[in-house]
Amino acid sequence: MKYVNLLWLTFFVVPGLGAEFDAKEWKFLTPIASEPGVKNPQFVRITLPGWVLANAREDLLDLRLVNEDGTEVPYVLQRAEPTTHEDDVPVRILNRGIDPGRYEQLVCDLGEQRQASNQIVLSAGARDFVRRAQVDGSADGSKWIVLRTDAYIFDQREQGRHYQNLRLTFPDSTYRYLRILISLDGRQPLNINEVQVRRVGRTEVEPERVPATIVRRSEDPKRKCTDLIVETAMGKQHLEECVLSVKQENFERSVTVSYQDHRGAWQEVGNDTIHRFKTGPVVDEYLTVPVQDLNEKRFRVRIWNGDSPPLDVLSVSMQRMPRLLVFHSSPADRYRLFFGNPEAEARTYDLGGAFEKLDTLRLPRVSLKAMTPNPSFSPRPVQRPWTERHPGLVWAALAIGVLLLAGLLLKTVRDAG
Questions:
Q1: Distance between CA atoms of 24 and 78, rounded to whole angstroms?
Q2: DSSP tag of 391
Q3: Is the distance from CB of 374 to CB of 52 less than 8 angstroms?
Q4: β-strands 28-31, 83-89: how paired?
Q5: Could you give the angle at the alpha carbon of 141 between the alpha carbons of 136 and 146, nearest 5°?
Q6: Are 97 and 76 in contact (CB under 8 A)?
Q7: pTM for the model
Q8: How far apart, in whole angstroms, are the C-alpha atoms of residue 63 and residue 323?
Q9: Nearest 5 degrees, angle CA 57-CA 60-CA 64?
């Protein structure tokens, strides 16, 4: 099996193997549930819930995965994205044939299991060609159904560049037999020497919905805008989309999403144009505003109305892509996840080589149990500044400085007289 990650935003936050974990500086923990379906040591994935995100550091560098022996376990933390994967299908070439000047033919047997397929990859001995190709399917090898007629394969070199496409795609098929017809149009055969058959699929990822509440609405006639103050139940939720529910049927408005920084200034994190156009039974709408990793609990959604009446916004909801924690699990072991340590240092471990070979979204899923306070939590004492810990020495140093300055001033006056 092969797979291709489309867009993985991955970072490694894992401690070294064998390191004994000191839990006293971590405020929370949650046990990891044992899943009956995970019977052998293998990589598994956890989707981090909102309450872990809210109580961990914003950058999530304080997450620690620990087994029952108190040893830290390596893991990879990842923002999930859709992936494409390629599953090879066993194939045997049954017949090769050439109708001189007309076409070159290959018949392939995919076996009795009739695995699904939708792509053929050819390897040709010829160079510098363009050929039209057709793909047929058959259940018994005698009655053929056309799967693709308008495909082209080519191998060309021009101005030092090499252009090649030897892939034939067709709708998903479970036919046991596939026939490839390559038009010759009076030219020489391509001498196909290898055929690979695959099933190419895409694993989608549904965004997680984060409930939000409109706590205040105000109209600004001068700016011609509507301001919605919105809150989520928890902060640090890594919000990525703002979705509006609007009552009106026909509109188009610009929307900005902002949060208020510690100085009280509004900082924009997203903007887009929302719309809904209803013409008869057809409705065209887009009501989503992308935002950039919004972690504030309260924020503002501003709708620019222009000279149109304000929109009746029924609700606002937020979305994010799931945050996944991937690690190698042994069914005989028990694991706990610790979090809630602002002073924790990032860990690194070379897990990249193994991780690159994983199709993460197809790994078995394990879940977290309820969050509990860490019974061994003992926060590090606050280290006061040296001047606060030794005030007597500070005053003594000041007194000495004053005396030295007074002596210097007195000497200067005497020398001047």
A1: 26
A2: H
A3: no
A4: unpaired
A5: 15
A6: no
A7: 0.76
A8: 12
A9: 105
Q: What is the pLDDT of residues 131-175, one digit of tens each?
A: 999 999 999 999 999 999 999 999 999 888 999 999 999 999 999
Residue with tokens 């703002």: 242
Q: What is the pLDDT of residues 253-262, one digit of tens each?
A: 999 999 999 9
Q: Tell me the C-alpha distance between 41 and 333, whole Å.
A: 10
CA-CA distances (angstroms) from residue 412 to 106, 309, 400, 409?
108, 80, 18, 5
For residues 382 and 346, is the Cβ–Cβ distance under 8 A?
no
pLDDT at 383 over 70: no
Residue (of 93, 64, 101, 8) closest to 343 by Cα position: 64
Residues 269-284 have pLDDT tens digits of: 999 999 999 988 999 9
Q: How far apart are CA 329 and CA 35, in angstroms?
A: 11
Per-state percent for the chain, helix, strand, coil, to nearest 5: 10, 50, 40
- Which residue is associated with the tokens 């005497």? 414
> Residue with structure tokens 């047997």?
109
**Distance from CA of residue 327 to its chain's centroid?**
17
Q: If DSSP codes are grouped into helix, strand and coil, which group holds residue 237? A: coil
Distance in angstroms (rounded) separating the CA atoms of residues 216 and 219: 10
* CA–CA distance, 152 with 122 (Å, rounded to integer): 12
Find residue 245's DSSP bridge partners: 315
| Separation CA 201–CA 151 (nearest Å) | 20
Q: Please, which residues have CB within 8 angstroms of residue 192's CB and are 6 or more apart in sequence?
A: 96, 104, 106, 122, 123, 124, 125, 180, 182
Residue of 200, 209, 203, 202 lying closest to 361 (CA atoms): 203
Length of the chain: 417
Which tokens is 237 given? Answer: 């939720």
CB 271 within 8 A of CB 338: no
CA angle 115, 120, 126 (to 5 degrees): 150
Please give the Cα distance from 171 to 200 (Å, whole number): 11
